[in-house]
Design brief:
80% helix, mainly alpha, Growth Hormone, Chain: A, globular, 399 residues, single chain, 15 helices
Length: 399
Amino acid sequence: MCVSLLGDGIFMVAVAWQAYAISDRPSALAYVGLAASVPQVALLLVGGAISDRLPRRALLFWADVARGVAVAGLSALLAVGVARLPELCAVAAVIGVATAFASPALDALVPQLVPAHELTQANAFEQFVRPAAIQLAGPALGGIAVVVLHPSGAFGLDAASFLFSAYCVSRMAPVGAHDLGAPEGPITSLRHEVVEGLRYVRSHVWLWGTFLAATFTYLLIIGPSVVLLPYVVRNALHQGASTYGLVLAAGGVGALAGAIVAGRRGQPKRPMSWIYLWWTLATLAVAGYGLATNAWGLVMAAVVVNGAEAVGAVAWATLKQRRVPNAVLGRVSSIDWFISTALLPLSYALTAPMAHALGPRQTLVLAGVLGAAVTLGFLFLPGLRAGEETPAVIVSEGA
C-alpha cells in the first residue's frame, strides 16, 4: 500500500499537468475526473457484493494489475507523443473500475488482519501511511519526475508502483486464525447480496445519514478542489508543478498530524459528534484555497483540510469496523463509497461552468462555506447520534 499510494501521489501531479498541457482550461481535468468517477460509482455496489463473496486478496491483486497495465500503456503512448485527452480519460476509466472492486475489499480486509482491540491504531496507521505516500512523498516526487522525466516517466513510475503492490498482495499470508480466502457463508445471487447490504444500511441512521452527508458535501467540494487547485497554482499564482506538489505535500503533513492525534487519543466517547465537527472544519478550510493569495496560503489551507479530515476518518473507519459484522462489511463499505461518491460526476461536470461564471477563487470559497454548512447540518439528523454515549460493540471479528 505504501508503494502503491506513492505512485498515486505521482499520478495526481502528472495527470493534472498533462491535462492542462493539452488544454489549459478547467474542463480538461474535469473530463478526466468524470471518466474516473462514473464507472467507479456505477460498479461500487457490485464490487462490494463480490468482495463479500470472493477472496478479497485476489480482488486487490487483479485490481492492481489492471491499473498498472493501463498506466503503463499511457506512459508508452506519451513517450511516442500520441496520447491526448481521450487516452487520459480511458486510463482514468480503467482506474475507476478497478477502484470500485479494490476499495470495499481493502476496507473489509483490515479487521481480518489485526485484533479487534487494535483497530483504532491500525486505522490511524493507515491514515498515517496514506497521506505520507499519496500527499507528501508522492506529489513531491511527482513534481520532480514531471520536470526531470517528463509526464511519460512519471506515469511509468506509477505503473511500476501498482505492479509492485500486486506482487506484495500475492505474497500475503493468513494472519492468526483468520482466513484471507473467500468469506464464509451461503452463496446467493449478487442482487440478493446487494439488497441485503442496502437493508442493513437502511436500518441504521448513523450509516445512511453519514453516507448522505458525504454525498452532498463531496458534490460541493471535490470537483472544485481537484480541478481548480492546480488551475489556481498554474494560472493565478503562475507557479509550476513543483509548487503544486508542495501544496499537496503540505496536505500530507497535515494528515500525518491528524492521524497521530487520532491514534494517540483512541476512539472518542461521542464518536459521531467528534467525526462531524472535524469534517466540518476540513470542509470549511477548502474556502482557504480560494482566499489564498500566495503559495504559503494554499499550504496552510491544505494542512487544515487534510489534517481535520484524517482525524474524522480514523474514528469513522474504526466505528464501522467495530459495529458492522464482517460478513457484510464489504457491502456496507461499497455502499458507503457508492452513496458518498454518487454525485462526483456531477461535481466535476459543474466545476468548469461554475468557475467560468463566478471565477475559480470564488467557486472554491463558495464550495467550502456551503460544504461546511451541509456537513454540520447532518449532525442534527434525528437518530444520527443515538447511543453514541455507549461504547461500540465489537462485531467485526472472524471472516
